[in-house]
Predict the structure.
Amino acid sequence: MPTELTARAADTLLASARALTSGEVAARLGRPRSEVEAALEDLRDEPRVIVREWPMEDPHFGAERIVVAARVDDATDPSAVHAAEQRCQRVYEDILRDFLASHRCV
């Protein structure tokens, strides 16, 4: 059974044309990122939402993983599912590019 936070996270994703990081969803809902990430985990079986995560092993990043989620415009259409996955991938790549462009380890 979905919690209220899970339902609110789903509503937030379904209302956004962009893929959102867990931090962006947390900011929109005014909840801690860890709680939102748990809610996103609950949404993994929701066909209208894609949730992807990547490990972030650099201790300077401030998080152990990057979680990005996006709505699927038509869950019955494989190309729509693929498009949502690609939106998540683009957000991850943008975060990684920006992090690596500014990261200096001495």
User: Anything to note?
Assistant: The first helix runs from residue 4 to 14. The beta strands are 20-21, 49-55, 65-71.
